[in-house]
Amino acid sequence: MAAKKQKQYTNILVPVDGSHNSKLALLRALDMAERHPDTTKLHIAHVINEVTNFAGASDQFILKMTNNDRKMLNKYLKVAKEHHVKADIKIMYGSPKATIAHDLTDLYHPDLIVMGAIGLSKIERVLLGSVAVYVSREAPCDVLLVKEDHQSKAKAKK
C-alpha cells in the first residue's frame, strides 16, 4: 500500500480560553504552521460566554474582562509572530460551542480547528456539555483536540 500524502492545513482556527490545554493547542498549531509559514495562517479566537460571565455584571466588569481577554490574545499573537507565523486575533461574544463551530467557521472558513480537549470551566462542562465534543461533531472541518502530556506541560508553563 502506497504511503498517503499528509494533508497540509493552511487556514487554522485556534479557539483559546486561557486554560493550560488551550495554550498547548496554540503551541501545536504553531508547530504545524511553522512547517509552511508562507502558506499557513492562524486565527486565534476567544469567545466570551455572555450567559455565564455577564449575568448581572456591571458594564465596568464586562469592559475589564474584555480588556483582560484582549491582553491574552495579544500575548498569543506576539508568540505567533516570534515563530514567524501569520496570525490574527478575534474576540466574540456568545455560546462558545456554537460560536466556534458555526460563527467562527463561517467567518474564517478554516480547514482545521486546533483546540484543547478540556477548557477552563468544569461547571459549564457538567451543565452544558463539552465545548470540544460539540465542536468536533458540528464543525464543517477537521478538528484536532490537544490533550496534555508531560513534555508539553513543561513547555506550556513558560
Mean pLDDT: 85
User: What's the SSE pattern?
Assistant: EHEHHEHEHHEH
Taking the sheet with the most strands, its summary is: 5 strands, parallel
Q: How much β-strand is present in the residues? A: 15-25%
- The assigned CATH architecture is 3-Layer(aba) Sandwich
**How large is the radius of gyration?**
16 Å
CATH topology: Rossmann fold
- Major beta sheet, strand line-up: 3-2-1-4-5
Which structural class should the secondary elements be placed in?
alpha/beta
CATH homologous superfamily heading: HUPs
Which CATH class applies here?
Answer: Alpha Beta
| Unreliable parts | none
How many individual domains? 1
* Rough outline: globular
For the termini, the CA-CA separation is 42 Å
* Count, helices: 7
Instruction: Kindly state the percentage of residues in helix.
Output: 40-55%
Number of strands: 5
Domain UspA: 9-147
Pfam families: Usp
Organism: Acetilactobacillus jinshanensis
Protein name: Universal stress protein
Write a structural description:
Belongs to the universal stress protein A family. InterPro entries: Rossmann-like_a/b/a_fold (IPR014729), Universal_stress_UspA (IPR006015), UspA (IPR006016). Residues 9-147 form the UspA domain. This is Universal stress protein. The chain has 158 residues and is of the alpha/beta class. A five-stranded parallel beta sheet has the order 3-2-1-4-5, with helices on both faces. The chain has one domain (11-156): Rossmann fold (3-Layer(aba) Sandwich). The radius of gyration is 16 Å and the shape is globular. The protein has helices spanning 20-34, 50-54, 59-82, 96-108, 122-128, 131-138, 150-156; strands spanning 11-15, 41-48, 86-93, 112-116, 142-146. It contains seven helices and five strands.
